[in-house]
Amino acid sequence: MNVVPDTSVVIDGRVSATIDDGQFEGATISVPEAVVAELEAQANDGIETGWDGLEELQRLADLADEGAIELEYVGERPSAIERGHASEGEIDALIRDIAEDLEATFLTSDIVQAEVAEAKGLDVEHVTPETREVDVGTLTVETYFDEATMSVHLKTDTVPMAKRGELGEMRYKEIADEPLDEATMDEYAREVVDAAKESSEGFIELSEPGMKIVQFRDYRIAIGRPPFSDGIEITAVRPIAQTDIEDYENAEELKERLLERQRGVLISGAPGAGKSTFAQAVARFISNHDYAVKTMEKPRDLQVGPEITQYTELGGEMAKTADALLMVRPDYTIYDEVRKTDDFEVFADMRLAGVGMIGVVHATRPIDALQRLVGRVELGMIPQVVDTVVYIEAGEVNTVYDVRTEVKVPAGLTEEDLARPVIQVTNFETGEPEYEIYTFNRQVVTVPLKEEEGGPGSESGVDRIAKQEIEREIRSVARGYVDVQLKGQNTATVYVEDDDISSVIGKGGGRITDIENRLGIDIDVRTHDENPNYGAGAGGASANGRGGGNSGSSGGQAAGQMVTPEITSRHIVIPVDGNHGETVEVQAGGDYLFTATVSRGGEIQVSRGSAIADELEQAIDRKDPVTVVPS
């Protein structure tokens, strides 16, 4: 008797089990090289089924040595093209062809393979896939947790570590005396994966070569294997607290705001601050008040009730998940986490379609969450996408912002013709505006309306932006050192070299009047000899590194990313690594040149022929280092 097994039955270990039962004892087992190639590729990629299949081949070799069967390997290894089309059934077809050529019994645990083989007239033996009995009472990984443990971190040849403590006061500490060896780590990893496969309380969220993410009960467990990681690593995380929205300050106001109508909310905070815990509390609250709530997560680890359906990526894309959700039409969707540009675009699309959206975002300051939308969403649409920002710190609601648009003259400017749409960010508790976001000279600026910390003499955000813009305008016509000092909210004194006085003022004062009208600020132009602080290193913004301090920084040059601009026929292109959608300062030789927003493509373009471009080209010609500094 001749038997040809396919890949599925080798992985399941049912070939040797069937032989042990006596059904195929004494038979010739013809293993196709295509099966060996599949198992080898899976094992090389760190996929456990590959190793399971190779172990089964070793068992068959042992049975052959004992004389229980005859073992042979037949056929040719599949080509790269055939392996590339394995998901379309090319490898399966090769294996069936071998069974047909040998007139052998085709052994499989794949029901699709069995049906196709029978349709083609093969003698088919279909066996039910093996179900391993797995004790899912308690995983070994779970024994490392106590009531104060948020996450456990295990790695080959490393002492087990854990994050333990209260929210906002977590400590990363050793929780054992001895490191774990590779065999122990492999056993732990297999136990987790087996439990996820066999238990109704778990599932495999992600399975890629070298990485598996499992959701088991309340635990999210990530398993890394070589070559993806440099050793077997297991990271298990669980929520350590479950709260209700009433447990937070401003609960009544927040509840009224959420139930008033569907809103766009960003829940922000640093890692471990309690963002997801708060998001869970919000999800339960609005679900209990007659709103249909869904979640979008990758991985799915929010702890919510069964009435809230949790969705992950559909076809590998959250955009497809969003399309499906728009057909379901939930009242609110919890998006955990919003990180990449695609995530923000999906969030915005769903919000503009009328779905209430609550996104979880990493941010170190409350305003940072909102600034991550700049460049990703059209500026004027931001308040329609996000009207509430909740900042979580140490498990508590630290700040709540209300976001809305007003047409007004931005703070610090007075001319009526400077009125424009301004995004006003107001502290929900005090009712006081704290930031304004608007376009200024074609750049998006975020201006704090309160003085920065550092004492009464510290420079406000409005002052800093004003000084930078005045300096930029004056430097476009002055050749020497420029020092800007603000004398009031709407007045400034500019000190320039003697030779530059006439250029800056212009014929009949026309040039300085044009600058004043553009900026909405009265400017008094004087020489450096009239500056009482000249040479003392105080006050103004340095234009070329001689004399006063560096514009836009305090106490020295700000750290920045060194860049290499490219000059094309029409633009100067500045490539930026990171900071996509963020507002940055461009400096040359440590001196401020201009403020710009980094495009989604990771670059800043300056049109040649403009004053800014001329200054930048001159700096490039002088070989001054050009740097990009986050604003």
Describe the structure.
Residues 536-558 have a biased composition (Gly residues). The longest helix has 18 residues, at 48-65. A hairpin with a 2-residue loop joins strand 21 (433-440) and strand 22. The strands form six sheets. Strands 15-14-16-17-13-18-19-20-21-22 form a ten-stranded mixed sheet, with helices on both faces. A seven-stranded antiparallel sheet has the order 8-7-6-12-11-10-9, with helices on one face. The protein contains 18 helices and 32 strands. It has five domains: 2-126, 5'-nuclease (Rossmann fold, 3-Layer(aba) Sandwich); 140-237, Beta-Lactamase; 245-448, Rossmann fold; 454-556, GMP Synthetase, Chain A, domain 3 (2-Layer Sandwich), CATH 3.30.300; 561-630, Sandwich (Immunoglobulin-like), CATH 2.60.40. Residues 452-458 and 536-558 have low confidence and may be disordered. 29% of the residues lie in helices and 28% in strands.
How is the topology of this model organized?
Elements: E1 2-5, H1 7-12, H2 14-20, E2 28-32, H3 33-44, H4 48-65, E3 70-74, H5 80-84, H6 90-102, E4 105-108, H7 111-119, E5 123-126, E6 149-155, E7 161-164, E8 171-174, H8 182-198, E9 202-208, E10 211-216, E11 219-224, E12 233-237, H9 251-260, E13 264-269, H10 275-287, E14 293-297, E15 309-311, H11 318-328, E16 332-336, H12 341-352, E17 356-362, H13 366-371, H14 382-385, E18 388-393, E19 396-408, E20 420-427, E21 433-440, E22 443-448, H15 461-475, E23 483-486, E24 491-496, H16 501-505, H17 510-519, E25 522-527, E26 561-563, E27 566-567, E28 571-575, E29 583-588, E30 591-597, E31 603-607, H18 611-621, E32 626-630
Parallel strand pairs: 1-2, 1-4, 2-3, 4-5, 13-17, 13-18, 14-15, 14-16, 16-17, 24-25
Antiparallel strand pairs: 6-7, 6-12, 7-8, 9-10, 10-11, 11-12, 18-19, 19-20, 20-21, 21-22, 23-24, 26-32, 27-28, 28-31, 29-30, 29-32
